[in-house]
């Protein structure tokens, strides 16, 4: 935790092969062009339940995303983003450091 409830972590991405797949929270299907899609690690399932609005910031900018899926293979503070979300936050498609906090 950085401060004020801000979590330091890393952004990862789904991969376009997930397009059309059902989201774990039952809220529709994955779309790589939707920057609001966020999946979290098992360590965050309780603190960031489905529907939690998160602000995710990286070197390229910030997005306001909604936790709509789970990322069972993610590390504790990883945030799995759509390709559009990761490009907006990281500026490229690859892992990057981010900060995350819950938007009230």
Structure description:
The structure is a single chain. The chain has 104 residues and is mostly beta strands. It is 8% helix and 37% strand. The protein is built from one helix and six strands. Strands 1-5-2-4-3-6 form a six-stranded mixed beta barrel. A hairpin with a 2-residue loop joins strand 3 and strand 4. The longest helix has 8 residues. The chain is globular, with a radius of gyration of 12 Å. The model has no long low-confidence stretch (mean pLDDT 93).
Global mean pLDDT: 93
Q: Helix fraction?
A: under 10%
Number of helices: 1
What fraction strand? 35-45%
Shape: globular
Low-confidence stretches are none
Q: Let me know the largest β-sheet.
A: 6 strands, mixed, barrel
Q: Which structural class is indicated by helix and strand composition?
A: mainly beta
Which strand order do you get reading across the main beta sheet?
A: 1-5-2-4-3-6
Rg measurement, Å: 12 Å
**H-E string:** EEEEEHE
Task: Give the gist of this structure.
The chain is mainly beta. The chain has one helix at 83-90; strands at residues 7-13, 37-40, 53-58, 61-70, 78-81, 96-102.
What secondary-structure arrangement, pairings included, does this model have?
Elements: E1 7-13, E2 37-40, E3 53-58, E4 61-70, E5 78-81, H1 83-90, E6 96-102
Parallel strand pairs: 1-5, 2-4
Antiparallel strand pairs: 1-6, 2-5, 3-4, 3-6
């Amino acid at each position: 935790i950085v401060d004020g409830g801000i979590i330091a972590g890393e952004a990862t991405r789904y991969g376009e092969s997930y397009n059309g797949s059902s989201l774990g929270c039952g809220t529709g299907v994955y779309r790589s062009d939707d920057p609001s899609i966020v999946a979290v690690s098992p360590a965050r399932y309780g603190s960031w339940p489905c529907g939690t609005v998160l602000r995710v910031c990286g070197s390229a900018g910030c997005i306001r995303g909604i936790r709509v899926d789970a990322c069972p293979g993610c590390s504790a503070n990883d945030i799995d983003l759509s390709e559009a979300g990761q490009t907006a936050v990281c500026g490229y498609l690859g892992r990057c450091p981010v900060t995350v906090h819950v938007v009230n």
